[in-house]
Each structure stands twice: as structure tokens, then as C-alpha cells.
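Long-time lurker, first post. I've been practising inverse folding by hand and with some scripts of my own, and I keep getting stuck on stretches where the C-alpha cells seem ambiguous. Below is the full C-alpha cell string for one chain I'm working on. Before anyone asks, I'm not after the true native sequence, just a reasonable design that respects the backbone. If someone could post their per-position residues I'd love to compare against what I wrote down in my notebook.
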């Protein structure tokens, strides 16, 4: 079932013109954009490392054929806690979330998006899933 889900996600990414699924590497955190964030991640990032006390902004951009991403959530709020995003007014098609690294550990941030469908028309049954693994070090 998991391989079927991965195949559907890969097909969706290709069909919707996504730039890539990700290499699985651990990219260097991107400095935040002047809003007090230490790290910024987008839908192209899948793993990163940060330190306790740092702030993370997640900015997910919807593709043309997809609805906006659901609000990103942390799998472990004791490690990576959601906080108020001072830039909460995002452009249309952009979903923003902010987190603070509270304790050393690993947390996953997840969100999902479904296809845009016209009213009264058949809609494909698939879901795009975003997952970011955040390793917090002391």
C-alpha cells in the first residue's frame, strides 16, 4: 500500500509540473526572510537540522491543479512546537506555518493537498502528502 501511495504521489508531482520529489539529502537550512525566522523550508525540502531555540517557517506553494496545502502540523510538539507566524497573511496559494525548536529530538511536519475539481464533475481520488523531517540538536 505504501509503494502504491508513493507511486501516486510521484505521478501527481510529474503531472502537476512539480520541480522534484526531493533527494532525501539533508540541505543546509535557508536563513529566514527577515521575519525573525532562523530557517525557512518549502515543499522542496524534506529534511533539515536546527538547534534548540531556533524558529522555523514552512511555506508551501500550491500547484496549478491542486488545492492549497492543509495547515502543517508537528508530530512532536515537545520537540517542535507550533507558534504564531508574524507573516500569517500569505499570498493566494501559499500556506504558512511557524515552529520553535523546544528540545533535542526528531519531529515530522506534515501537510496534504487534494486536486482542484469542478463542481458536479468526477474528481480523481488522490492526495499529495508533504513530509519534512526536522532534527533538533542542543
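-- Answer (accepted) --
I ran through it position by position. Result:
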Amino acid at each position: 500500500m505504501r509503494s502504491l501511495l508513493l507511486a501516486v504521489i510521484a505521478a501527481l508531482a510529474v503531472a502537476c509540473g512539480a520541480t522534484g520529489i526531493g533527494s532525501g539529502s539533508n540541505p543546509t537550512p535557508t536563513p529566514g526572510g527577515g521575519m525573525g525566522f532562523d530557517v525557512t523550508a518549502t515543499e522542496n525540502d524534506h529534511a533539515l537540522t536546527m538547534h534548540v531555540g531556533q524558529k522555523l517557517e514552512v511555506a508551501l506553494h500550491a500547484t496549478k491543479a491542486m488545492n492549497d496545502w492543509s495547515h502543517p502540523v508537528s508530530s512532536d510538539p515537545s520537540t517542535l512546537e507550533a507558534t504564531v507566524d508574524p507573516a500569517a497573511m500569505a499570498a493566494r496559494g501559499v500556506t504558512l506555518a511557524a515552529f520553535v525548536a523546544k528540545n533535542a529530538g526528531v519531529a515530522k511536519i506534515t501537510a496534504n493537498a487534494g486536486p482542484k475539481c469542478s463542481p458536479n464533475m468526477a474528481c480523481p481520488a488522490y492526495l499529495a502528502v508533504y513530509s519534512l523531517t526536522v532534527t533538533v540538536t542542543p
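A couple of notes from the structure itself: Helices lie at 2-15. Residues 2-18+31-116+126-137 form a domain with the Immunoglobulin-like fold (CATH 2.60.40.10). Happy to go over any region you disagree with.
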